[in-house]
Amino acid sequence: MPAEVCLSLPEDADAEELRRVYSQPKACWPEPYLADDVVHKELGLLPEMTYPEDNPWSEAKEELGKHLFFDPRLSGSEQIACANCHDPDLGWGDGRESSFGHDRQRGDRNAQTLINAGYHEHVLWDGAAESLEDQSLIAVASEIEMNAAPGKAADRLQRLEGYRERFKAVFGDAQVTKQEMAKALATFVRTVTSRESDFDRFLKGDSDQLDEAELRGLHKFRTKGRCMNCHSGPLLSDGKFHNIGLHFYGRRREDLGRYKITGDPEDVGAFRTPSLRDVTQTGPWMHNGLFMSLDSVLNMYSAGGARPEPREAFEDDPLFPETSELLKPLDLTERDKDDIEAFLGAISKHPIRLSPPERIDE
Predict the structure, then answer these.
(1) What does pTM read for this prediction?
(2) How far is CA 188 from CA 64, 69, 128, 132, 285, in A?
(3) What is the rounded distance in angstroms from the CA atom of residue 342 to the CA atom of residue 29?
(4) pLDDT tens-digit profile of 194-238?
(5) β 271-272/241-242 pair status
(6) Exposed e or buried b per residue across 291-311, where buried means at least 16 C-beta atoms within 10 angstroms of its C-beta
(7) How far apart, in whole angstroms, are the C-alpha atoms of residue 102 and residue 100?
(8) Could you tell me which residues come within 8 angstroms of residue 40 by beta carbon, excluding any fewer than 6 positions away?
(9) pLDDT, tens digit, 9 for 90 and up, residues 243-252
(10) What residue ranges in the chain does DSSP mark as E strands?
């Protein structure tokens, strides 16, 4: 068979020419603007969720995890549930710069959305958890989050017949353990995925799903905006850790990021690339919730990221981080930023409404 003939894109292409070109198979799309060493995946549809071999999905386990997710008795005070910081009505975050936990203590980082968390290879901003199962127990045990020994939280649930019955139905034993508690929670979280967006329908062949601004934004996202260097693939994330200059090294809000986990100087100030799916629903943005608007985020990237200079006391500090070379000044126009923001809206959908289950009290 003859090779497929791809339509080329004129330099001054209008929206309809963009529509024709991007309605072609993805192999015919214009090449994205990438740094030399970046290997990317093309934008695409989310695959089916997979579950670990030692923690397969079942409807009963998902339902048990849902009960646990909304139950404040997992916390030491019996007042804080997972849903306090990951509220379905707030994009599965909490809408705050950073969250309040036990005794109204405030954390240092923004509560990441749980939407599509089950697809990520690394969990948490710094990759501290190896799985969603691990992450659930980290949150329960954290002194500034839920402040409960996971084993004691399991013992508290053990006293309730309703939980004993549910754990027996799922795991074959009425004994409530922290490991099974973690498995149920992780199973529920893996069911929290994006709804179909306008861009998803565009990818499925409905070329009218994107308006002119969104089409221009798609093209600029892949080219002039250089966004695909980090935000690619079905999740619009490379899953890697990058320093974009928001570490506040040596200052009050210092956060060393991935370095705290690896001890590698290259990881100082590096944080995991978040997924951009449903991004309009998950503000404020960045690991510290610094930005309250996507326009501010785009302004930062247009400037080439944040590039703090070391103060005199840190001039010879070998750990003072350098902002990733993937970031370059872009000089985006106001129209460019408006178009990219329009595209971000096209990859977003308000999460499905989810009501808390009835409390298990006996």
Answers:
(1) 0.95
(2) 8, 8, 20, 10, 24
(3) 20
(4) 999 999 999 999 999 999 999 999 999 999 999 999 999 999 999
(5) antiparallel
(6) beebeebbebbbbbbbebeee
(7) 7
(8) 32, 34, 228, 229, 232, 233, 238
(9) 999 999 999 9
(10) 241-242, 271-272
Whether omega for the bond prior to residue 284 falls within 30 degrees of 0, making it cis, is yes
Which residues, 6 or more positions from 49, have their beta carbon under 8 angstroms from its beta carbon? Answer: 118, 119, 190, 191, 193
Residues serving a catalytic function are: 145
**Which amino acid is located at 156 in the chain?**
R
Tokens 């710094």: give the residue.
126
Which residue shows structure tokens 């068979």? 1
Residue 130 has pLDDT above 60, yes or no: yes
Residue 282 and residue 117 in contact, taking contact as beta carbons nearer than 8 Å: no
> Taken in order 275, 104, 249, 255, is the CA torsion positive or negative?
negative
Instruction: Tell me which residue has tokens 């849903």.
Output: 83
Nearest to 153 by CA among 216, 208, 77, 99: 77
Question: How far is Cα 5 from Cα 169, in angstroms, rounded to an integer?
Answer: 57
